[in-house]
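User: Show me sequence and structure for the first protein, then do the same for the second.

Assistant: Starting with the first protein.
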Amino acid sequence: MTREELRHQQNLQRLRGLRPIDDDFMRCLFKDNIPLAQLVLRIITGKPDLIITDCQTQKDMKRLAGARSLCLDAYGTDATGKKYDLEIQRADKGADPHRARYHSSVMDVENLSAGQEFRELPDTYTIFIVEKDIYGMGEPVYPVERMNLLTGKPFDDGEHILYVNSEYRGDSDIGRLMHDFHCTNAEDMNFELIARRTRYLKQEPKGVREMCKVLEEMCLQEREEATRETAIIIAKKMIAKGVMSLEEIAQYTDLPLEDLQKLKLDPPEK
């Protein structure tokens, strides 16, 4: 077996174990699939009449020079212009409230152009599907809203944040949906829209080729990240020794000089 054939077999094995709760697989599920996005958002928001008119995956939201870029897992628009950011956050760290705040603020920047009035901002929904019940209360969805602490009334700024507990298994649509998000096999799923797309990506030749390409890109990205992490470790040691200039370290590690300048300012690890 050639190296390429072996890598292909490894990708097929990895594909069999993927679930909708895995963000790369989720992006492929939602790609060009408005009906599926509409089903999921109707269930999570509790809006059975919600009409989704557009859904994009891996939406790049960077609009401000120097700001941290953001690539949304799935970004949808409904018939009234409201915006929905649907994210998979498997690690508790990814569910940090500051991250949710940033996602909301970036959607605001994306949706208000020069000359528009602030009141023209659309309502936004930042939805984090988290692997664990981070609040530990057994609820399917934890909605987060701003409120006036003195009056006790909602602030009504149009920003909505929802944490979805993917551990929830109640006898309801959201419970059945979260069950499906943890399935590797389409035949075990409750919702045909999810099952049909899963069968396509895991069983049909065209879908399998699509997924194998995604997995190849994931492997390449993981190797690049591992190489960068190793370079950073080496650079930190070289900076600590102080025997080489930052320019020389940049040539040795292939790290940008700007990154090395930041590393030099970082406090030493204890």
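Switching to the second protein now.
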Amino acid sequence: MKLRFGLTGSSGSLGKKLILLNKHIKFSRFKGDIRNKLTVSDWIKTNNFDVIIHLAAVVPIKTVNKNKKYAKEVNFFGTKNIVDAISSSNVRWFFFSSTSHVYKSSKKKIFENFSKKPISYYGKTKLNAEKYIIKKLKKTKVDYCIGRIFSTSNISQKKNYLVPDLIDKIRNAKKKIILRNLNHYRDFISMEEISKIIIKLCNARLKGIFNIGMGKGVLLKDIAKLICKKFKKKYDFVDNTKPTYLIANNNKLKKYVKIRKINNLEKIIF
């Protein structure tokens, strides 16, 4: 018998990629307001899902910071609505798309049990959602899987994301461009790889928390340099902030999932 899949966030970059790469799966896409408890509950009850993959969220950080109230309503309370509904349903596996931003910055690679000290309000909304999931579902029959996704880049992302924003600014620069506060290290993984990992986690019915990243730090300055080189632009850097580090220790994930290495940074950026 085929499993019945529910998917939130199907209109986002990751949701679109997940659907594109898994045409053999018939996803029932949530199209309502995730903040509406009744709408969420009806969707889950009507479809009698076996699996729910919850990707819907307010991102990126720039968007979250412009409307923190809305971000909290979607990222925390929207997730709460999903979790409350599935706790008394036939759902057996639940995936929650979380973020590396729940962690404290560290020069060392970050394990899943590393100190939680969100470096952004976005990270705070996700961490609070994680805590609710664990508390609510630990005594139910639902196996929850929390994927803490590290940095991503995709051509379908909007300009308010870091890399698309850099590309837009650099490409349209009329003279030498001054690039600010890029002295930070992030762990980039492609949308394609994340999509494959989510389905592999589902197929194995894995439970718990997993870092989803390549395990390799990339200096944001180096990304900016590559973009400047591509568009033949002159540049200079100004840094007034203390460097931050978010790099995954993905050993736990690699016990169950083979991660395809991407050594060419341009393949992730462009």
